[in-house]
Structure formats: structure tokens, C-alpha cells
Amino acid sequence: MGKTAKLIVDGRTYELPIVVGREGEMALDISRLHKDTGLITLDPGYGNTGSCESSISYMNGDEGILRYRGIPIEQLAEHSTFVETAYLLINGDLPTAEELNEFSLMLNNHSLIHEEMRNFFEHFPRGAHPMNILASMVNAMRALYPEIPEESEKEDIDKTLARLLSKLRTMAAMSYRISQGQKVVYPSYLFSYCANFLNMMFDTPVRPYMIDEDFVRALNLFWVLHADHEQNCSTSAVRLVGSAQVNLYAAISAGISALWGPLHGGANQAVVEMFQVIHESGGDPAPFVARAKDKKDPFLLMGFGHSVYKNYDPRGRIMKKMCDKLLQKKNINDPLLDIAKKLEEVALKDSFFIDNRLYPNVDFYSGILLRTIGIPLNMFTVMFAIGRLPGWISQWKESREDPKGKLHRPRQVYLGHDKRDYVPVNERKKGNK
Ligand code: SDX
């Protein structure tokens, strides 16, 4: 018998099993709690609750560790590409040269989107946020592409996953071009995944886009760093919606919608907007740090703090280094990078941030990198979504293959009215609620 915990309720003792993870982390298994004791747990925001057992990513929030399928993010950032990392997350191991070549070919073969989807773009309300368009477009894919039936063969599943991975990037670039009233640029087999995206975003009939290998490397790094992150809000949305056995596209569309929120993936756009306000108000971050500490002020220091990391987000550290390197190499002096560094320095010396263990997260420097590559501000969260897609897909696949998988249906504690009778409308008096 493994480790257990004792729970004493009304004089009765219950033994709850303790599950021990690969890295020694321990979880109280409460899967029989309600059946055995009639009790449920209460954990608003699920900060203390494991929703599943997973083998995809591992995070240690206290030590600032992140690994994909056991490989430290620092090593993937240095040696891998986004396509290789996507393969690793979805299939569980790094691909051989042949497997990588086959996977890249499959991505290339599925990079075009159905021409009928262009009409969808054309009739979307002008000025819609790109995340709004992307979530709708991905959902609409179910109307054009088959879902993965339960008894699908591996190659059918792989093809569907590669189709989504490749088409999301094409749709993102297309939505931007159309929003700018520009001619759509199609993907080309001549370019890698990342270079294709940049070309689809920036190539024009009058000035062919020159692929800059530094920008391609920076984009690969950006997407590797965003590829997966345990059971974050948007991944949990994908798993929860997927648990109803709805098609993959609908589950991924739910993840895109969750990521759009400013407390989650939308933070990368909010961080740069915050830097711009600091820049326009003279560049002194101190007043903004003061506001972030003021409980009466709803202002948050965007890009700071994390639900799990109570240490520097390892991805933020790598992103900051890449910003320094890229801007130096391109001889670009971005005042917002100086503001970011000054803000970080002021905050990390302040007891409020130290005591609350608030450090820069992945979003704090990521926007500076995207600006340098030339990505427009309102596309920042779309960039996060493209990066996170392999993670959503691998987590969706893992939950679908889980023999213990079931419909997600959390419980609640009820605090509403006592039982009361219906009152006919002519007998109701204002205020007697
Ligand atoms: C992402 O989960 C993931 O893995 C997400 C992500 C991923 O890869 O999927 O990493 C991507 O979403 C990163 C986070 C991006 N969001 C932001 O940068 C927005 C700003 N950050 C905050 O909204 C906040 O830090 C959260 C939402 C990220 C975390 O909130 P928590 O869990 O409440 O943080 P906490 O418990 O550590 O906060 C301790 C205190 C609280 O005050 P009290 O209620 O105790 O009085 O610090 C406060 C918080 O209100 N606080 C902040 C703050 N973050 C936390 N105060 C000012 N500015 C902040 N940024």
C-alpha cells in the first residue's frame, strides 16, 4: 500500500491514497472522496487541484523549471526548432531525421486552407480582433474537414493534427493580410514553417520579403518557448471541452478563446501597451509599480506574476537574452526594452513583489521580440496561440487516450436562497425578493 493521508470527519477516519509523481510531487487522490464521505473539495481557480496525470510537460514553480517530455526548455531553446518541438510534444520523443522530414513534408502538404474559408474572412466584421477571427475560423474548420472518429488509424490522426498545425499558421497570416486590405500570400514549399509565416505576413507585390535568418531563429525560439505549459487556463479549456468528446477543432477553438484573456495569453499585448504608456509618460516606471501595489487600484503590472512560477519564469529569462542579442545584432535601440529592464529592476527590489514572489513571466519580454520581428501589436496573442497549438493538441490527444478519461464536471458549494415557492406575477411586490 502506497502513502496515504488520514481525514477525520465527524469522528470517522478516512484514508486517502497519495499519488507520487515522477519528480516526487505528491497529490491527494480524492477521486472517491464524495462516494466514500459525501464531502467535496472547494478550490476556486483550481490552484491546489490536479485535473489529470500527464506525461507531457513538467514545471517546478519554486525552482523555475520547465521541461517538455523530460527535456529542459533551455536545451530545446538552444538546439531545437518549433516543428521538431511540436513533434516531440505530440509524439512523445524527438523525431529521427527521417521522421522529422516526413512531418515537415506533411505540414507543407497541408498548409493551404480551403478557398471557401476566404469567404469566411471576407465577411467577418472589419476591425474584429485577430483572436476573435482565429477562434471562429478554427471552429469553422469542422465544417470543411473531417473530425477524428474514435476508431481512427494513427496516420489519420497524425494527418488531422498536422493539418491543424499547418493551417492555423496560414489562417493567422491570412486574417492579418485581409484585415489590412492586402492581397493574401500563399504558403510556399520553398520556406520552413517559420519563414513561411513571415513571408505570408510581409511579402508584397512591390517589395518581395527578404527572409532574415535572425528573425526566423527568433520566431522559432518564441514558438518553442510557448509550445506547452502543463494545465494552464487555455489547455484546461481544451481538455474540459474535449472531455465532452466534441471534435478537435471545437476544443482548440475554446483554448484560443481562453488564451485571448489579458490575464493569460492576452498579457503579451497588454505588456507592450503598458510599456508604451510608461514611455509616453516620461519613462519612469516607479508610479506604475506604486499603482500595482495599491489594492484599491485595479492596475496590475502586466507580464509579472504567475499562478505556478514563484521564481523567474525560465522562458522569460531566455526571451530577455534573445531580445538583447537580436536588438544588438540589428543595431536597433527599442526604448521599450530599456523601460522593461528598468521596470524589472525597480519591481524586483520592492518588498511587495519580493514578498509575493512576483517575477517577470513569459509575456514580459516576448512583445519586445515580436516588435523587433515586425509583428503588429494586435497579432501578439495570435502568435502565442500558434506557439501553444502543439501543446493543446498533445494534451487533447493524451486526455482522449486516457482510459480513466471522463466528462469534466466540477461540483460547487451552494450559497443561494433556501427552498421557496413560485409567486404569480400579479402577487409580486418590488423588493420582496
Ligand atoms: C500566462 O498558467 C500558465 O502557465 C500561464 C502561462 C502559459 O504559458 O500558459 O504561463 C501564460 O498566462 C502568464 C501570465 C500572464 N498574465 C499576466 O502577466 C497578467 C499579470 N499577472 C497577474 O494577473 C497574476 O500574476 C496572475 C493571474 C498571472 C497570477 O495571479 P495569482 O495566482 O493571483 O498570483 P498570486 O497568488 O501569486 O498573487 C499574490 C498577490 C495577490 O495579491 P493578494 O490577493 O494576495 O492581495 O500578488 C498580486 C495578487 O493580486 N499580484 C499582482 C500581480 N500578480 C499578482 N499585483 C500586481 N501586479 C501583478 N502582475
Molecular structure report:
The protein has helices at residues 33-37, 73-79, 82-91, 97-109, 115-122, 130-140, 154-179, 193-202, 213-225, 233-242, 248-259, 267-280, 286-293, 314-329, 335-348, 351-355, 362-373, 380-401, and strands at 4-9, 12-20, 26-28, 57-60, 65-68, 71-72. By secondary structure, it is mainly α. The termini are far apart. The model has no long low-confidence stretch (mean pLDDT 94). It binds s-citryldethia Coenzyme A. Residues 229, 232-233, 263-265, 267, 292, 300-308, 356, 358, 361-363 line the site of s-citryldethia Coenzyme A.
**Assembly annotation:** single chain
Tell me the number of helical segments per DSSP (H or I, 4 or more residues long). Answer: 18
| Unique ligands | s-citryldethia Coenzyme A
Mean pLDDT: 94
Q: Assign an overall shape.
A: globular
Which regions have little confidence, pLDDT < 50, spanning 5+ residues? Answer: none
Reported for the largest beta sheet, the result is: 3 strands, antiparallel
**Strands in their spatial order, largest beta sheet:** 1-2-3
Percentage of β-strand residues: 5-15%
Radius of gyration: 24 Å
Task: Describe what is shown at a glance.
By secondary structure, the chain is mainly α. It is 50% helix and 6% strand.
